[in-house]
Amino acid sequence: MNLEIINDEQLIPTARETWIDQLVDYAAKKLDLPDDTEMSISLITDEKIREINREYRQKDRVTDVISFAIEDGEDDDLPNFEELAEELDIPRNIGDLFIAPNHVAEQAKEYDHSFDREFGYTVVHGFLHLNGYDHIEPEDEKVMIKLQEEILDGYGLKR
């Protein structure tokens, strides 16, 4: 997995970036993604994620993670990026996550989880969204949550 982590404001220690990279790599292997699959994670302030949430989701509030999947299937005029990447023999880019670590820390306290568990949950949850998983319909939610828990438990981030 080729993961770019953007942590310009040092919202988490640089050493934690390796942990994030390893977690995403573990999740990618669980989904059997090609090793050269690409994505990014931007670690941003609560104010910035609120701004993005307001602009792109019309929700004027802070959230933990926002995912922008390249292959979200909403625009039928776009090519099938997975097929195109294979045809052109280039890495497949699944999209971008924006995560607000300070909000994740607040949620960890609220839910009585460790920061690692809550941050790992946030990363994996967003990662699954980038890979087409959703939880709008109850049947889809069961699939996504089960896979999410398998990844977190397997990585050692049990409740």
UniProtKB/TrEMBL annotation:
UniProt entry tagged with the keyword Lipid biosynthesis: no
Manner of cofactor binding, per the entry note: Binds 1 zinc ion.
Root EC class: hydrolase
Positions contributing to Zn(2+) binding: H125, H129, H135
Record-linked InterPro entries: MetalPrtase_cat_dom_sf_prd, YbeY, YbeY_CS
Listed GO MF terms: metalloendopeptidase activity; RNA endonuclease activity; zinc ion binding
Cofactor(s) listed in the protein's UniProt record: Zn(2+)
Matching Pfam families: YbeY
Keywords attached to this entry: Cytoplasm, Endonuclease, Hydrolase, Metal-binding, Metalloprotease, Nuclease, Protease, Ribosome biogenesis, rRNA processing, Zinc
GO cellular component: cytoplasm
Subcellular location as annotated: Cytoplasm
Enzyme Commission (EC) number: 3.1.-.-
GO BP of this protein: proteolysis; rRNA processing
Biological role: Single strand-specific metallo-endoribonuclease involved in late-stage 70S ribosome quality control and in maturation of the 3' terminus of the 16S rRNA.
Family of the protein in this entry: Belongs to the endoribonuclease YbeY family.
Protein name per its UniProtKB record: Endoribonuclease YbeY
Biological source species: Lapidilactobacillus concavus DSM 17758
Gene field: ybeY
